[in-house]
Each structure stands twice: as structure tokens, then as C-alpha cells.
Amino acid sequence: MRIGLSFSELESRTDQALDRFEEEFGVSMYDTWYLSFWDASDVSDSDNSSQVLDGLREDCSWTQTADNEIVFGWADDLDHNGIAYLNGFYAVGSENPTHPFDWPEKSVAQHEISHNFNAPDHGYFGPYCIMTYLYAYIGVDKWCSDCWDTVYGNIWIVEIALKQTLIFYLMKWWLSYE
Predict the structure, then answer these.
(1) Is 130 exposed, middle or buried, given 0-12, 13-18 or 19+ CB atoms closer than 10 A?
(2) I need a labelling partner for 25 at 20 to 30 A (CA). Which of 82, 144, 145, 147 fits?
(3) How many Å apart are CA 172 and CA 73, to the nearest integer?
């Protein structure tokens, strides 16, 4: 298992993912970080990505007050690289997943945020797309035409009413090993 990233490295890689949405879809992405605010220690199975995602929604629902706000949490030692609600407002990424296929953080963020805009997974093998696990693993940051159309359509459904701005509330749960 590798050592976790510094905050500035994690922030930079997350910003790279947000930049892809700005470049591709012409939206403004604003991110606000809350450090050590979200506490995932109350999740009974703390490496279960699905339970941690539910915990993020329960603990941080106060930040998601409009359809242009997405809450993304980073945690350590999850059983997946990330997980998100399809067509929803919450996603979680793992800095250090407990399996051997650790994706680049910018791929995790871009992939999971794409789920928030209803882009489907393509499984391990599929089109040259961030939504295909193999390509996410090697750092591909492109969407196939189907996923691009899906993300674009869902971003602009929200954006037309909300002035072309998406706001991301990013939570980082710092786990201390003592």
C-alpha cells in the first residue's frame, strides 16, 4: 500500500478532474474543501465504499442545497477506487483502495463525478473512455461519444436553470493511525 498524498497533491489531482469538465462542457467548476469535517468512523464496515458513500450523504447533506452542488469525499482504504450515486449529488473516492488496481486520483474523481451526471460504467473492457475501468486505471481522461452526450445532457439540464456553475464540496476524512 502506498503512502497517502499530501493535501496539495490531492487537491491538484482533483482540480485536474474538474478542469476536464470545464474544458469539455463549458461549465465553471468551483470547489470548496472542508478538511477533517466529515468523519467516516461511524460507518460499521469502514472499508465498504457503499456504506461510506451513504455515510457521506448522511453527514454532509447540509452542503447539498441546490441541483448544481455535488459533494465528493476522499477516504482511505476503501474496497473500490470510488463510488457515486448515478444521477445524484454524492461520490466518494479512495486514495488507497484495498485492492491492487489503484487508479490515479484524477481518474477516480472524473469517473465518479461522471456517474453523478448519469454516465454508466463500461466494465473492465469497453470503449476508449474514462468510464471503462482499464482506461481509467491507465489515466485516460476522455469520454466516449455516448458518455460525453450523457454527461453533457445532464450538466446542461442543471446548468440552464442554474447559470452554468457547478459547485463541488470536497470532504477529506483524514484517518490517523496511532
Answers:
(1) buried
(2) 82
(3) 6
Query: Given strand 90-94, what is the order of strands in its sheet?
Result: 28-35, 165-172, 69-75, 90-94, 82-84
DSSP letter assigned to residue 166: E
In tens, the pLDDT along 87-134 reads 888 999 988 777 777 798 899 999 999 999 999 999 999 999 999 999
| pTM metric for this prediction | 0.87
| Alpha-helical regions (H) of the chain | 7-25, 49-60, 105-116, 133-137, 145-162
Residue 32: closest CA among 4, 63, 68, 58 = 63
Q: What is the DSSP secondary-structure string of 89-128?
A: SEEEEESS-SSS----HHHHHHHHHHHHTTPPP--SS-SS
Whether 58 contacts 89, CB under 8 Å = no
Beta-bridge partners for 103:
none
Specify the DSSP class assigned to residue 65. -
Q: Which three cell numbers stand for residue 89?
A: 449529488
**Side chain identity at 54, as an amino acid letter?**
D
